[in-house]
Write a structure and sequence with these properties.
about 100 residues; YaeB-like fold; alpha+beta; single chain
Length: about 100
């Protein structure tokens, strides 16, 4: 099994990295990236760990940052469709596949 970050999720990730670099420090941005990597690894070890949202779509909160990975399982892949901030509108990922 492997984790595949879809284009929209990559855009979410890069936007968060820019935010942390601009408004905090590079080390905070790197901690965010490490938290995302750790959450992805957790998903690979336990794909059904996240809570169900809609149909096959699930979410798993990151440990240190107020973000969650929105994903679904497709064959041998975990497809991450969004890296969503927990306190912002979640509709931006609704049509992603």
């Amino acid at each position: 099994m492997k984790a595949v970050m879809q284009r929209g999720a990559r855009a979410n990730f890069h936007a968060a990295m820019r935010f942390y670099r601009k408004n905090a420090t590079t080390s905070v941005a790197m901690a965010f990236a490490a938290d995302l990597d750790a959450t992805s690894a957790l998903l690979l070890a336990t794909p059904l760990l996240g809570s169900q949202l809609l149909g096959k779509v699930r979410k798993l909160e990151m440990r240190r940052f107020p973000y969650e990975l929105i994903y679904f399982i497709s064959g041998d892949d975990i497809r991450i469709i969004a890296v969503a901030h927990e306190h912002r509108q979640q509709n931006d990922w609704g049509g992603r596949k």
